[in-house]
Design a protein that fits this description.
- Helix content is 56%, strand content 9%.
- It has a five-stranded parallel sheet, with helices on both faces.
- The longest helix is centred in the middle third of the chain and has 18 residues.
- The two termini are 49 Å apart.
Length: 294
C-alpha cells in the first residue's frame, strides 16, 4: 500500500515566514529534529495558508531515518472503508500502527464518521504508546471541530496546538518577490513584474497565500502571451474575480446602519413593528438594497 504523497518541492527552506506563521514553522522544525517532543502537533489555519507545506516538510526531513506516513483524512477514510469491505482490517491496523511518523492532513473531514473516528482513536493511542510522532492539520482549532468525538478533541488539545494566521503585508510581499524570481528562473526571457504591481498585489490580495501565488501566475502568463508586463489597469482586469472578493463585503447589518443614518432614525425603530410612514420608507429601502446587493 502506498499512502505517502510527499512532494519534494515543499521543503522547509522554501517556506517563507513572518510573524503570522513563525510559531507553526518553529514548532514543525522542532518536531523534525526531536520527535515525540510535542505529541501530537496540531497545526490549524484557513485555506491556502501553508499547513500542507509544513506537514510535507516534516515528512521530507524525517523519511530518511523513520517510517513516515503522510495521508489526508479523506484518504484514511477511503482505505478504512475499503479494508472493511475486503475483510482486511487486521492488515489496515498493522499498517497504520507500525509507523514512526503519522502525518494527517485536513482532519476536519472526519466529522460525523463514527466508526472511522473509533478506529482513528485506537490507532492514535497505539502510536502514542509506541512513542511515534503524530502531526495533524485542520482548518480550525480542536475545540471548534464539529461532530468529532470529545475524547479525540481532548487528545488533540493535549499536544501542542499552533495556528497559522492570515499572511501579513511583509509575508505577502516576500511571497510575491520569491514567486516572481522562481518563475523567471524557469524561463530564459526574464519578465520583471514592476514594483507598483507587486505592491498592489501585496496590499489587495489578503485572503490566502494560494490566491496570491495564483495572482502572480496569472500576471506572468499574461506577460508571456501578450509579450508585455501588464500595467495597473490591466492587472485589475486580469485579476477582477480575486479583487472582487475583498470589495464585495456588503452585509445586511451595514445596509441597515447606512439607511438609518441617511433617514436619521435609530436601528431599533427600523426593526420595530411600528408602521409609521417615516419608518416604512427607510425599511423598504433597506429591504430593496439587501435584495439587490447581498
Amino acid at each position: 500500500l502506498q499512502y505517502n504523497r510527499i512532494d519534494p518541492n515543499k521543503r522547509f527552506d522554501n517556506f517563507l515566514t513572518s510573524s503570522s506563521n513563525k510559531l507553526a514553522y518553529e514548532a514543525s522544525l522542532k518536531v523534525s529534529e526531536n520527535i515525540a517532543q510535542y505529541n501530537p502537533l496540531y497545526i490549524y489555519g484557513g485555506v491556502g495558508m501553508g499547513k500542507t507545506h509544513l506537514l510535507n516538510s516534516i515528512g521530507l526531513e524525517l523519511k530518511e531515518n523513520n517510517k513516515v506516513m503522510f495521508i489526508s483524512a479523506e484518504r484514511f477514510m477511503y482505505q478504512f472503508v475499503k479494508s472493511l469491505k475486503s475483510n482486511e482490517m487486521v492488515k489496515f491496523k498493522e499498517y497504520f500502527r507500525n509507523t514512526d511518523i503519522l502525518l494527517i492532513d485536513d482532519i476536519q473531514f472526519m466529522n460525523g464518521k463514527e466508526a472511522m473516528q473509533e478506529e482513528f482513536f485506537h490507532t492514535f493511542n497505539a502510536l502514542l504508546d509506541r512513542g511515534s510522532q503524530i502531526i495533524v492539520s485542520a482548518d480550525r482549532a480542536p475545540n471548534k471541530l464539529s461532530r468529532i468525538q470529545e475524547r479525540i478533541k481532548s487528545r488533540f488539545s493535549g499536544g501542542l496546538v499552533v495556528d497559522i494566521q492570515k499572511p501579513d503585508y511583509e509575508l505577502r510581499k516576500k511571497i510575491i518577490e520569491h514567486k516572481a524570481e522562481e518563475l523567471n528562473s524557469l524561463y530564459s526571457d526574464k519578465i520583471n513584474v514592476s514594483k507598483e504591481i507587486q505592491n498592489f498585489l501585496s496590499t489587495e490580495i489578503t485572503a490566502s497565500i494560494r490566491e496570491l501565488v495564483g495572482a502572480i501566475n496569472r500576471i506572468v502568463s499574461f506577460s508571456r502571451i501578450y509579450n508585455k508586463v501588464p500595467n495597473l489597469a490591466e492587472t485589475k482586469v486580469v485579476l477582477k474575480d480575486l479583487l472582487n472578493l475583498a470589495e464585495n463585503k456588503v452585509t445586511i447589518d451595514l445596509i441597515q446602519t447606512l439607511v438609518c443614518k441617511f433617514f436619521k432614525i435609530s436601528k431599533n425603530e427600523m426593526l420595530s413593528s411600528r408602521r409609521s410612514r417615516y419608518l416604512v420608507r427607510p425599511r423598504q429601502t433597506a429591504i430593496y438594497l439587501t435584495k439587490i446587493l447581498t
